[in-house]
Amino acid sequence: MSSLPPIRRVVTGNDAQGRSKVVWDGPAPNSHESSPGSGRGHTDIWVWEETPLPINGTNDDGNLKYVFAGPPGGGHFRVVQACARPADYDRSKDPEVIAPHPPKPQPNSQGLWVRGGNSMYESAMHKTQTLDYGIVLKTGRDLVLDDCRLAMNVGDIVIQVGAWHLWCYPNGVQMAFDMIYADFPDGKGLAQGNDKPLLAPKLPPSVKPARRIVTIDRTEGRGELVSDTPAPDVRLDPARSGYACARLWVADGHPAKMVYETLHLPHTIEPPPSGSVCRVIDYPPDATWKGKVGAAEVAAFFKAMGSPGASTYSPSAPHPYMQKTRTVDFCCVLEGEITLVLDAQEVNMRAGEIAVLRGANHAWSNRSSKPARVSVCTHDGRN
Q: pTM of the full predicted structure?
């Protein structure tokens, strides 16, 4: 039995009438502890071996074979966990300390290179052949690159574009990673092109910025910071004061590209073919707009998001902002409480819990008195 804290995972499917419903709701079953009783390791939420991701099926794809860097044909969404470092910790007596060393492939783990430097409370300096969306769920974690060290807090997101890095977690951590197999055309995983990072916009006082960190290897063997700013691409909804959808990154195909910026790509809810989109969405309490939104307001919102066809609005629908896309969405509740509304069911969710939406007709309803924040990693899917 693993001592890792359980991660609640809600997975959707469709019933015989094509209505979205919950298929699994409970602790994600596939955990991998670093060493017995250590409280450190990974919990796989979902794994895919081919792209686009299959939407249908009765198999629990969170239970597929464990591979750290993920399958070359796809990727995986997982949660990394670690317990806090005790006050009497003595690094000189730590049996897991490995001194820094030149880069070398990690045995029995395709697409992973290490440089040592790890201990019980620090990862090795490492690099994977992946594009990662890293989302802090609980506590905090220091991201260490070759040119800087950054403290990350709950809700912060790093876009790791195949960069060398290590993690330091003296206070423990719970962090989600969407790891997508990437293209290393030079065999080294260095940055391609010269796209400049977009500048962060000026937001209304009611909108809380979403922090986006981007890292990459400009030169061989050095993970470096590209940018650390509020997310540059933010869409609002005039009908819902306090609603904000921040787009952080777009992968426009598979394998993912090693580039500095992607937000110049067209803005849509759906990702490009075989691609993905990472977003952070703030939902104000429904009570602030309920009764003031109808067909015209909903249509204007989805048009502004670049996806008018995603709306499934109906006066009889369980929520006016119901939507359906041919995607698989990994949704992490970062702050507050929120209800996942489906055709046949509703699910109340709290911070730290994760939903896997497989082509689901759905909406998010905030029935509390405080804002809620959800990160959404959307992947192109196939029936």
A: 0.96
